[in-house]
Design brief:
By secondary structure, the chain is an alpha/beta fold. 34% of the residues lie in helices and 26% in strands. The protein has an eight-stranded mixed sheet with strand order 8-9-10-7-11-12-13-14. Strands 3-2-1-4-5-6 form a six-stranded parallel sheet, sandwiched between helices. The longest helix has 17 residues, at 183-199. The relative contact order is 0.15.
């Protein structure tokens, strides 16, 4: 840890809200391994659990209250992996305290909530970024570059799927409507984000269906058609009732870009396939930690005072699309 952080003379000092698995297993290790960041403190309402979870990071302060991390004068940036329903409240508190915030996706529950968060960031002159780590992986950067450069011709269709089976874990927060869970909010937001990234703007219209087993429950599956105009479409699906799967295809008039594991490839080599004129070419990418790339980018932006690559205008458009999908499906939740 000391070796990697010594690379940067003035590392960004991070605090994390909660002992959520994504923080413990992915983002905290990424901060520790980063060339420009230092993990200073973690807040959890269960100090003992947090201390045990973060035993791999000796010297990290453990607070019993989120506000203590936010008010710690040594901390510059906050990572917020709280349940979706708490994103807006605690992100805005951190922004008001002058902290930069990397907030887990989706940024908020509704577009209105997201707008209030963006306004808070602007008012207090601090940075806010939605944590779509997959966008920093070289395979996605390369695939989008190929799509935008016209390698497979004008893009007409994007297919993207993400699912895993949660039926045996009813206690999981993703299954809790009061915490703004649901398949679209948790994994479906990735395909939504990818479609927007390919076309460069939000869809003009949306048609959708959701599977909600009972009144008051989260959507266990969502399927949507996104109309980007001029015969360009996105087909997305998400589910908590299917086996673990993820895939993406970017289909142009001349060929197809296929990304077998687009969102969470893990620590393994990845390959993107480009099929054109009946021939398939492969582009392979070495093992890399996309979470580390994400936190390093955000820390670089803090030091340079530049806007993050994942712009808030894109985040707001994606939130509006998620909301439109629910509305098109006649699903009255989430409402704030």
């Amino acid at each position: 840890m000391q070796g990697s952080q010594a690379i940067h003379r003035n590392p960004v000092r991070w605090g994390i809200l909660s002992a959520a698995n994504i923080g413990v297993k992915a983002v905290a290790p990424a901060i520790i391994a980063s060339s420009n960041g230092q993990l200073v403190a973690v807040a959890s309402r269960d100090e003992k659990r947090a201390a045990e979870a973060y035993a791999f990071a000796p010297g990290v302060r453990i607070y019993s209250d989120y506000e203590q991390v936010i008010q710690d004068p040594e901390i510059e940036a906050i990572y917020n992996p709280l349940p979706n329903s708490l994103h807006a409240e605690w992100t805005i508190r951190a922004l008001q305290a002058g902290k930069h915030v990397l907030c887990e996706k989706p940024l908020a529950v509704t577009a209105r909530e997201a707008t209030s968060m963006v306004e808070a960031a602007h008012t207090h002159n601090v940075l806010l970024m939605e944590a779509f780590m997959y966008r920093f992986h070289p395979q996605i950067v390369w695939a989008l570059e190929q799509a935008h450069s016209g390698v497979v011709g004008p893009i007409r269709l994007v297919r993207a799927s993400f699912s895993f089976d949660l039926r045996s874990h009813p206690e999981n927060i993703r299954m809790n409507a009061e915490l703004a869970g649901g398949s679209l909010m948790d994994v479906g937001c990735y395909p939504v984000n990818l479609c927007r990234a390919v076309y460069g703007h939000p869809p003009q219209a949306v048609a959708a269906r959701v599977h909600v087993p009972r009144v008051g429950s989260v959507d266990m599956a969502t399927n949507a058609v996104l109309d980007f105009g001029d015969g360009r479409f996105g087909l997305i699906d998400s589910s908590f009732e299917l086996t673990g799967r993820q895939s993406a295809e970017i289909i142009g008039e001349l060929g197809t870009i296929t990304i077998p594991v687009p969102f969470v490839p893990g620590i393994r080599e990845t390959t993107v396939f480009v099929t054109k004129n009946g021939q398939m070419n492969e582009q392979t990418f070495a093992v890399i930690d996309q979470y580390q790339l994400e936190v390093e980018h955000f820390a670089d932006c803090i030091r340079s005072q530049e806007e993050p690559a994942r712009r808030l205008s894109e985040t707001l458009e994606n939130m509006a699309t998620i909301e439109a999908i629910y509305q098109a499906a006649g699903h009255e939740w989430p409402i704030v």
